Amino acid sequence: MSTLTIDAGELTAAEIIDALEDGQRVVVRLEMLGGVHEVTLRHDGTTYYCDTPTTLHKHDSADEMRTCIERMGYGRD
User: What residue stretches are annotated with the DUF8001 domain (predicted)?
Assistant: First the structure.
């Protein structure tokens, strides 16, 4: 699995999901609480995952993942 590292807002939610569905792991760098943090997004063919520094979120569909990406500010509008 290859890894694509981006800054938050660099790609749209659709572009991130396309990369995940192509088998890439997407690492999103974002500034939070005075520092830079990384969130790892991945897809195992069935479930989408958002692995944050504190929590692992699971999503059952691309629509759920898109909502998460948009709500958390990982992708641009």
Answer: 2-76
